[in-house]
Specification:
Elements (H helix, E strand, L loop, with lengths): L1 E3 L6 E2 L4 H18 L5 E6 L5 H16 L3 E7 L8 H14 L4 E10 L2 E8 L3
Parallel strand pairs: 3-4
Antiparallel strand pairs: 1-2, 4-6, 5-6
C-alpha cells in the first residue's frame, strides 16, 4: 500500500487493503462530524413593528451572529406599505447599527417583489 506518494522516495507499507479503507472512512467521518456548517437563519420584520418587538428581533439576530450563523433579514410589505419602501430601509439600517459589534452587512438591502432582503454575516475573529 502506498502511504505517501508525494514523498521522495515514495513511502509504502504492507497492510490489509480492507483495513486501510475502513480506517480512511473512519477519519473522513470524524472530520465531517467536527466541521461546523454555517447556517443561514431568517428573520422577518414588518415596517409597522413595535419598538419592543423590534428589540426582541435584534437580540435574536445578535444571538444567531454570535453562534457563527449568517442572518437573512427580510422586511415584508403588505398593501399600501409598498408605496413607502424607505420606511423599511430605515428599519434595516437601524438593525445594522444595532448589530454592528457582532456582524457586518454581506449584501445590502434590495427590494425583491414585496420583500426587502439583506444578509448579515458574523464578524471574523
Amino acid at each position: 500500500m502506498e502511504v505517501a506518494p508525494t514523498a521522495n522516495p515514495p513511502v509504502c507499507k504492507i497492510m490489509d487493503y480492507g483495513r486501510f479503507k475502513y480506517e480512511q472512512s473512519k477519519r473522513d467521518r470524524d472530520a465531517h462530524r467536527k466541521s461546523k456548517t454555517q447556517d443561514l437563519k431568517g428573520m422577518r420584520l414588518s415596517p409597522k413593528i413595535g419598538e419592543h418587538d423590534f428589540q426582541v428581533k435584534v437580540r435574536q439576530i445578535k444571538e444567531f451572529l454570535a453562534a457563527g450563523d449568517k442572518v437573512r433579514v427580510a422586511m415584508w410589505f403588505r398593501g399600501r406599505e409598498m408605496a413607502h419602501p424607505e420606511v423599511g430601509r430605515a428599519l434595516l439600517q437601524r438593525v445594522v447599527q444595532m448589530v454592528a459589534d457582532v456582524g457586518v452587512v454581506e449584501s445590502a438591502p434590495k427590494l425583491e417583489g414585496r420583500n426587502m432582503i439583506m444578509i448579515v454575516a458574523p464578524k471574523k475573529g
